[in-house]
Amino acid sequence: MNEIADLTIPAPKRSALNIIARHLAIFLALISAWEISCRLEWLDPLFFPYPSSILEGFWRLYITQGNIWSHLGLTMFAVIVGFTAGSVLGVGLAICVGMSDRLRRYLKPYVIVLEATPRIAIGPVIIAAFGFGWTSKTAIVMLVCFFAPFVNTLNGMISVDRDKVEMFRSMGASRIQTFSKLLLPSALPEISAGLRLAMASALGGALVAEFIASNAGLGVLITQYTGTLNMASAFVCVLTLSALGYFIFRGMEAVDRFIIFWADRDRIEAVGRKRLAAWHSRLGDRP
Amino acid sequence: MMDRLSVHLQSLFKHLIVFACVIALWEGAAAVGLVDVILLPPPHAIAGSIWDLYVENRTIYRHFTITFYEAFAGFLIGGAFGLALAVGSSLNDSFRRYVSPYAIVLNVTPGLALTPIVIAWFGFGYSSKIALGAIVCFFPIFVNTLIALSRTDGDTLEMFQSMGASKGQVFWKLRVPAALPMIFAGFKIAITTALVGAVVAEFSQATAGIGVLMQRLSFALDMSGAIAALLSMSLLGLILFTIIEIIDDRVVFWRRGSRMEAVSRRRLARWKTSAGSSSGKPIGRK
């Protein structure tokens, strides 16, 4: 019966707490159901580890053994370097292509073919080319991170309002002005969506590279643990990846909100006020 | 008419010339020695491998169908789960509130990270590839369906309610048709991710499939063969995508003018015959 109240009353403090408590209760119930069914051997504990042993695994991997840190660092290094290189290359190339109508027309079919290819699938070819070390891992991440920003940036620049372009031209804006004041701002939401897609796939790309051939990294750790049927530790690694993914996701959202301030009402007001103040002070201190 | 055709032909011709130039450049660079022939084989070697794989050896067809089947089955299973949970969440708010945290956790986990665990659970055969494909393609379908179903035009909803539509009618006649385009957009994303899931699982552990074929070829440093397999993978992705697109075109018939006309003509004809048979009394539905 509380359900209906929850829905109609616009979130007083008590009901928010209430919701959290109920979420927790359901979560605990699920976990204990899992634990009990493992203890009663309805689920094979060899393949489905006890939640308690997963918790123990966290303690072991992070503190007593502490062996996860170096692998985590290596994977994150590949992800960050690859993501930066790939997305900068993707956005930059798309801007170059987007400025020229003719180049865009000739490149389009190739982009379509590349889009249809599952990018991670290029993994074995790249590993054969670059070897087993971190270069091939970074190269795969770079490749995975290249396409979404590239395609989205191109799309964003193509779908600019024609009338606005016309207006810019009729008022004698230079190419650079058209780009920085019109094309870039209107493409930014799509660009950041592309970057978010790239970030989401970057982690996957690094892991796949490690699954195929590598000697260190979280992917290797997961493969080793599952290979020795130490499932609890493998789960610890996967949950670590979930947490990482969550923070990356949230971080990208925050960056998004900062750059594309006009999509958010509060932010647009704040930025508008700041710009107004700056403008007034430049005109000579009139309020 | 002729004009448009000639313009089309002309642009096709230009594209072909550009393509030929690129190929010639590549071939020349390989011949001179600017490109390492082992790592990046010249185009004629790739063409030779394609001929080999498809016509002479004919090894690829078996791998091709296996991967196709794995990806499609994974898509169907993941899609069924995604659709069911999304419809449930859109109908019932408290269900949605309790499901969504788990869906988010599943989303932020790189699904491919589960590969070794899924293989340990489901074994080395097809089932692990299908399961990984299903896990990977669950979320795009879930989130697109949920957003599409909960984003209904308020005015239309009001009209439905003021005309006394039941809950089922609102769902089937308003929410579902309005949501279909976006649901299909989710399907299109999901089918390619399902293919990626299947291929990655094959990279890890498998005996047959296009991923295995490619891995074998590239580890034997037969790069032209590996690139031929990669191109076949693109072809597979295009085929899967096109299947969804054709279904999309049939189901969301109101998006394209010509399809819309054809369907409405057919419906009109059916309506006329049924109205004629039941003594001229018009029937409300359809």
Question: Any overview of this molecule?
Answer:
- The complex is a heterodimer of chains A (287) and B (286).
- Chain A is mainly α.
- Chain A has one domain: Orthogonal Bundle (MetI-like fold).
- Chain A has twelve helices and no strands.
- The model of chain A is unreliable at 1-12 (pLDDT under 50).
- Chain B has 286 residues and is mainly α.
- Chain B has helices at residues 2-32, 43-56, 60-91, 93-108, 115-122, 126-150, 154-162, 167-204, 210-219, 223-251, 257-277.
- The mean pLDDT of chain B is 84.
List the defining traits of the structure above.
heterodimer, A: 287 residues, mainly alpha, MetI-like fold, 82% helix, disordered N terminus, B: 286 residues, 11 helices
Quick recap:
Chain A has about 290 residues and is mainly alpha-helical. Chain A contains twelve helices and no strands.
CATH fold assignment of chain B: MetI-like fold
Q: Helicity of chain A, in percent?
A: over 70%
Give the total of domains of chain B.
1
Shape of chain B: globular
CATH fold annotation of chain A: MetI-like fold
Rg measurement of chain A, Å: 25 Å
Q: What percent of residues of chain B are in strands?
A: under 5%
What's the CATH H-level homologous superfamily of chain B? MetI-like
Terminal CA distance of chain B: 38 Å
Choose one word for the global shape of chain A: globular
Task: Tell me the number of strands of chain A.
Answer: 0
**Unreliable residue runs of chain A:** 1-12
| Oligomeric composition of the shown chains | heterodimer
Gap between N and C termini of chain A? 55 Å
Q: What's the overall average pLDDT of chain B, rounded?
A: 84
Helix content percent band of chain B: over 70%
Ranges of chain B with pLDDT <50 over ≥5 residues? none
